[in-house]
């Protein structure tokens, strides 16, 4: 409010953006105009669309399409967009070429039908599944996804390996995501209620479970146990995200390092902890290739411990101080 009394609304937003450190996608309504702006690194998504009675801004393209609209384009990193009854205006307020698109949006968080910065999430996840087979092939009888975000990965794995794909775990769609729940007992109860194996699909089979990621390991451990109880001969896990070893400080609610299953453990130790016959993760180069962007343009902090912005006590990947974003 103090800024807006001294400057235009665009200048006020620009000065605010120059003061903020972190990830954000913001929509602001002021009088009869809508303003949308995105952090200079583009960590979180934001896009513009057209619906029958005007324009709309959303964090995912699928939200616009669900309303019967047409996606026009993404809001660029470091851009302020003004929308009124007559036109859409663009104001570029950052001259930095640094980017840090969140890799976890492609792996897990975004809807599979969302396009983020021109890339369809579903296609990324299919490519991840195919890459998992190339990097960590094995013999098996059936590929089973951990729904929902593991479905496209499992399809890609099945197509690449020619091992049949079956939906051997049925999800209760009325429960929340377990890894962001605050209490351990609550998470475990949710996991028990969340997924139910189909005995006829897994009994006597070498089952390959394909999941998007492993955070604490609680979900994976319980799923492996449930699938074994249903009669599986072997249970292997293939994971579409490299080991998560560090928290996200830039927009995804993750636990502390102490709660992660991967830090300071070998793959063999993780396999034993979860109770599977084998666990293999996609590599970081493999993930980057599947997303289709350069590694320097992705935020990989939770899997590398190197962040695109300075965070107290954490490693900086060698770019993007606040001063670099000022025009």
TrEMBL record:
GO molecular function list: glycosyltransferase activity
Entries under CDD domains matching the protein: PRTases_typeI (cd06223)
Lineage: Archaea, Methanobacteriati, Thermoplasmatota, Thermoplasmata, Candidatus Thermoprofundales
The keyword Glycosyltransferase is annotated on this UniProt entry: yes
InterPro entries the UniProt entry points to: GATase_2_dom, Ntn_hydrolases_N, PRTase-like, PRTase_dom
Cross-referenced PROSITE patterns: GATASE_TYPE_2
Organism listed in the record: Marine Group III euryarchaeote
Sequence ranges assigned to domain Glutamine amidotransferase type-2 in this UniProt record: 1-86
Pfam family membership, one: Pribosyltran
This protein's name: Amidophosphoribosyltransferase
Keyword tags: Glutamine amidotransferase, Glycosyltransferase, Transferase
């Amino acid at each position: 409010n103090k800024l807006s009394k001294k400057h235009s609304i665009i200048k006020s937003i620009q000065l605010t953006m120059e003061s903020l450190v972190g990830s954000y996608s913001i929509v602001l309504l002021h009088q009869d105009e809508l303003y949308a702006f995105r952090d200079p690194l583009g960590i979180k998504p934001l896009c513009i669309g057209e619906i029958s009675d005007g324009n709309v801004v959303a964090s995912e393209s699928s939200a616009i399409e669900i309303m019967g609209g047409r996606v026009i384009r993404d809001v660029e990193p470091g851009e302020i967009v003004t929308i009124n009854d007559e036109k859409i205006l663009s104001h570029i307020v950052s001259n930095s070429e640094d980017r840090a698109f969140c890799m976890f949006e492609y792996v897990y968080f975004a809807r599979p039908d969302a396009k983020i910065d021109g890339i369809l999430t579903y296609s990324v996840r299919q490519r991840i599944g195919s890459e998992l087979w190339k990097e960590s092939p094995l013999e098996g009888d059936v590929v089973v996804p951990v729904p929902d975000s593991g479905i496209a990965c499992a399809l890609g794995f099945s197509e690449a390996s020619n091992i049949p794909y079956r939906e051997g775990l049925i999800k209760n769609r009325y429960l929340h995501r377990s890894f962001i729940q605050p209490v351990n007992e609550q998470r475990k109860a949710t996991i028990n209620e969340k997924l139910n194996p189909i005995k006829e699909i897994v009994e006597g089979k070498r089952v390959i479970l394909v999941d998007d990621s492993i955070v604490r390991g609680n979900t994976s451990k319980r799923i492996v146990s449930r699938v074994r109880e249903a009669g599986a001969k072997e249970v292997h896990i293939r994971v579409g995200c490299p080991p998560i070893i560090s928290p996200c400080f830039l927009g995804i609610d993750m636990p502390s390092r102490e709660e992660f299953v991967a830090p300071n453990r070998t793959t063999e130790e993780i396999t034993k902890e979860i109770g599977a016959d084998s666990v293999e993760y996609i590599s970081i180069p493999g993930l980057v290739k599947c997303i289709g962007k350069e590694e320097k343009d992705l935020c990989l902090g939770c899997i590398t411990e190197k962040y695109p912005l300075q965070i107290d006590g954490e490693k900086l990947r060698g770019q993007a101080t606040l001063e670099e974003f000022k025009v």
